[in-house]
Amino acid sequence: MSGLEKQDLSPTSAMIPREAVIPRLHPTRDIELAIVSGNLRSDALLQSFAYFAVERQWQSVWNLADCLKREVSILFDSQGLIWVDIGTIGMVHVSPPIGSELPLRLWVHTHPWSAYWSDTDRRALAGFAGALDEALVLGHDHLVRSISRDPVTPPLNRKLSSDGPLMHWTDEDPISYQAFREGMHRP
Fold first, then answer.
1. Which runs of E-coded beta strand occur in 2-141?
2. Exposed, middle or buried by CB within 10 Å (0-12, 13-18, 19+), for 53?
């Protein structure tokens, strides 16, 4: 972005604290109507995103976000409750999750095409450090994962940073959705 960083842009209504979303797959027609209407807070969208996330259908999460032409963030807390935020084509803010319980278990968000840890993602992840266990970035046919490691465990082969809050986060290679589903990922 010319002269401005994404995080310097004024926050939108996405920063309003949100309630947890109940996972429920809605009929395709209802999802299509929500997409066409532009109702980004519709139950059909939010609950369907939550459903795909609970089922670990990461390709479906990315596909639905792609249909919206927007980035999406999904956050799981330690109780298994889920929060969904829908942003713009190049940015999604994580709204304060009302009623969440730490530690946060998983943060997932989509990118428009390739999955990688952008500078903005790294800053967000650093902000979660100490309160989050795992994070995923979803791309069109692959994902990247990072997990928080206890500082007393053996040193990491690859980490997101050599110092600061990300030095205890793994830097894993991109992996296809199928390989991830089959458990072929290792930190």
1. 72-76, 82-86, 104-110, 132-138
2. buried
Enter the tokens of residue 74: 């999904």
Q: Give the predicted TM-score (pTM) of the model.
A: 0.88
Q: What does the pLDDT look like over 90-124, one tens digit per residue? A: 999 999 899 999 999 999 999 999 999 999 999 99
Has residue 62 been placed in a domain?
A: no
- State whether the Cα torsion 144-150-151-153 is positive or negative: negative
Q: Domain of 136?
A: 69-181
167, 159 contact by CB (below 8 A): yes
Name beta bridge partners: 179: none
Task: Give the chain's mean pLDDT.
Answer: 89
Q: Identify the burial level of 4 via C-beta atoms within 10 angstroms of its C-beta, where 0-12 means exposed, 13-18 middle and 19 or more buried.
A: exposed
Specify if 11 maps to a domain: no
Provide the β-strand partners of residue 36.
none
Q: Answer yes or no: is 84 within a domain.
A: yes
- Does 34 reside within a domain? no
C-alpha to C-alpha distance for 27 and 16, rounded to whole angstroms: 28
Tokens of 55: 């089922």
Task: Please give the C-alpha separations between residue 159 and each of 147, 155, 167, in angstroms, as whole numbers.
Answer: 10, 9, 6
Measured between alpha carbons, how far is 171 from 150 in angstroms, rounded to an integer? Answer: 15
Task: Report how many domains make up the chain.
Answer: 1
> What does the pLDDT look like over 142-156, one tens digit per residue?
999 999 987 666 656
